[in-house]
Amino acid sequence: MKLAKIKINAIGVNSLKGRLHEFVTAIDYDNSSTYRITLKNLELPAYIFKDSSGDYRAIHYCEQNENGVSCNHLNIFAYICQQLKEPIEKFSIKGSVKEMQTTANEFQDKKTFVNVNTQFGLVSPCEDAEEEEVEEKEIPATAAPASELVEKRDWKKGWNSIKQYLLDEEISPTIINNVENRRKEIAETVPLNNMMIPPKKPHFPYHGSVLKRALRHVVSLNKDLLLIGGKGTGKDTLIQTIAWILGLPTVLNVGSKDITKEEFIGEPAFRNGESAFDLSLFAQAVKQGAVANLSEVNMLAGDVTSMLHPLTDENKQLTTPVGTIERNQNFIMIASMNVGNGYAGTRSLNDAFKDRFAVIRLPYVQEFEEMIRSKTGLHDTHGLTFLKQVKEAVDQLIQEENQGHAAATIRGYIDAANYFLQIGINNETKEEIIEDYVINKVENIDEYMALRQVIREDAWSSLPITDEEQQYINGENI
After folding, report:
1. pTM: predicted TM-score of the whole model, two decimal places
2. Which of 245, 271, 313, 362 is most buried, by the most CB atoms less than 10 A from its CB?
């Protein structure tokens, strides 16, 4: 076999991280620093070995190589050497199958190989076989594992609290059992990427029947979710709650018309004099496992959402400039979108995109008083009733006159409840919370004045008429 000096394509080599099993079925080692590589698409094994000068070489046979055409096997050999922290110096070119067979026989006759699959993140070929297991031998200290080891977490940490929460939400024993099994698997296999949001109990976990539906889709059926609802309906809270329940880190992507599909995947880089490619957090989540929170997905351009189609169908792949990423079985995509007036820059989602999700429409509010009570700790009946009456007055104006949409803010009522808790409930604080947390969010002067009037008539007759409001009533310019 002829050998020639080689030039490594760093991007191609790095794209194999975590994917070596797609191309290699076995790696065997001999104590004279020779590795025998069994590739999935080649009949004859390849060899990586040290020559007399101590440099690593690689030899193999494939039809492209025999014809002098560049093949992808170089990247595989270079990646293996990268794990050994050794550069590969030369690579076989224009070798015939006869020459390779002769070389293979020479290696096989002179050396005793033992399997070292697990050192490179591969499953041992004898693991599921009925035949006698082959003893594994550790690679020398110069070698490094083919993929980073995941630090196993204790899945039981916080489980009692989560289980009690699920029971309180009337989640069925079957779903709870599925959650427990999934949580165990995630704790053993999914790393906590320090650039992602770690799983953490929300200050006020999601409350309502939608949780049960979401868990059925995500845990029992491995289905991605599309959450539809107005602002303040708890879309992000539901996503955070699911991540906390399962113990998955979260990566947040906020939709914008300016985001390109290239930004979504990653960007080229240049390190140590070599071209490289840095995967985005989203792409890392696909590869490692995580919850991807795609907020305001209906603000993304069509070519960006269409890029996600293969990820959410039977292909389960994300295409990148450095190769295809296989979707981790513990990757969950939960997209969300606001609906209604007042959302500039949104667009209709492609039907082909929506068809890939279980679509859940979140109710504007479930048991308003109970929600405020659970999220803030406000138990004062007078304060809760007051907030409910204000909300009902605002909802009425929206429904009957199609005005005041910006005041439909669950967050505003939560802030108002917290204000009552800290400052107290009196006429002064009532006026302040109505203005500062609800109606001042409306910019249109006609809608603003209509809100003041409907609240005064249907919720709180003591709302003062301001000088500005009086001028408006009198038809004076404001």
Report:
1. 0.56
2. 245
